[in-house]
Structure formats: structure tokens, C-alpha cells
Design goal:
The protein is mostly helical. 60% of the residues lie in helices and 4% in strands. A two-stranded antiparallel ribbon has the order 1-2. Helix 1 packs parallel to helix 8, helix 2 packs across helix 8 and helix 4 crosses helix 8. The protein is globular. The chain starts with 22 loop residues before the first helix and ends with a helix.
């Protein structure tokens, strides 16, 4: 039996979907925009794109994306939302760590779909991110240095960096495109009013 995290324990759901500042978007619309604030970190950029993709996926299924502070639905509604987001049934991905722990994930659900869109290879991302995220516990388990464990997982670390860069580039493009679309929609009523007054 696979344990799914409780809805309130899902850290990425609490993120705000904010795109990085887009000079191209400002040039397309030809107007000044309010200060967008500081640019997102690489981690926050990927998280924001992941949330944008999962929100779109859930909305396409007629579900309301969860947000902090929302009123939970019935148990059946919450389970349906969780299944749609994280996947249901048998977990297709599994990796046993040297520490003895097993990590499992689904290949269905909106989160898996977002990972495929961003990383390109969800299975390899699952494998390498699980290994890289558990280097310190492995070093403690083996009673050796983190550098020695990292050297032993050189291939996984290199693949993690490659896939992470791929996801970051895809996330930036996605968020920039979304921001441009939003700016264009905001400009349409203004342009319509200008036409009507002429």
C-alpha cells in the first residue's frame, strides 16, 4: 500500500505562481508594467511551473486546485483530488536506497504529467532525484564522507544536473509565455475601448 501525503502536507501546493520578469512581454505589449519584484530562484521557478501545470491539469478534469486555507471537501472529494494530483493504484516507479528505505511514485496523475513536461524523462528524474536527495543519509548510514558518497554517484549527480537544467529552461519558457498571455488579455479591453472612442 502506498502512502500519500495529506493535502496540508504537500509543500509545493502552497507556492504562488509568479513568473520571472519578462522584457519580451513588455516589448510585445508596448507598455510599462508595475515592478514585478525580485526574480524567482531556480528552485522557485521550477516549483511555480510545476504548480501551473498541475493546476491546468486539475482544472481540465473539473477539479479545483488545492490552496492553503481552503475548506476541505468530503473525504471522497479529497481522495479524488489526491488521486488526480498524485496518481492512484499501484506505484509504477520504485527505488530501494542503500539505507534500506524504498521510495515509490506514480506515473499517472497531474504531478507526474508536470514532471514529464518539465524534465522530459520522469523515470530518470525520479531515480536521480531520489539518489541525490538522499546522499547525506547514505553517507551517515555508510559512516563515510559525503564527498565519497557523491563520488560513488557521479553519474546520478551529472544526470540530476542535466535534467534540472532542462526543467529550469522549460519552466522559464512556460512562465514567460503565461505572463505574456496574461498581459495581452489585460491589454485587449484597453485596445477595444480605444477603438470605440475613435
Amino acid at each position: 500500500m502506498t502512502h500519500r501525503p495529506r493535502p496540508w502536507a504537500r509543500p509545493f501546493l502552497a507556492l504562488t505562481v509568479l513568473g520571472p520578469p519578462s522584457l519580451a512581454g513588455l516589448l510585445v505589449t508596448g507598455c510599462a508594467a508595475p515592478d514585478p519584484g525580485p526574480a524567482l530562484s531556480p528552485d522557485d521557478t521550477v516549483k511555480a511551473a510545476t504548480q501551473l501545470l498541475t493546476d491546468r491539469c486539475l482544472t481540465a478534469q473539473g477539479l479545483t486546485p488545492p490552496r492553503p486555507g481552503r475548506r476541505p471537501g468530503t473525504q471522497a472529494q479529497e481522495e479524488h483530488l489526491s488521486d488526480a494530483l498524485f496518481g492512484a493504484g499501484h506505484t509504477e516507479l520504485s527505488l530501494r536506497l542503500p539505507t534500506g528505505y524504498s521510495v515509490r511514485a506514480h506515473t499517472d496523475g497531474c504531478l507526474a504529467s508536470a514532471q514529464r513536461a518539465l524534465y522530459g524523462d520522469q523515470r530518470r528524474w525520479f531515480e536521480v532525484s531520489t539518489v541525490v536527495n538522499n546522499l547525506k543519509p547514505e553517507a551517515a548510514y555508510r559512516k563515510t564522507s559525503l564527498a565519497a558518497v557523491r563520488a560513488g554517484h557521479r553519474t546520478e549527480v551529472a544526470d540530476w544536473q542535466r535534467l534540472r537544467e532542462h526543467a529550469l529552461n522549460r519552466a522559464r519558457a512556460l512562465l514567460t509565455h503565461q505572463k505574456q498571455q496574461k498581459q495581452q488579455k489585460q491589454q485587449q479591453p484597453i485596445q477595444q475601448q480605444e477603438k470605440e472612442t475613435q
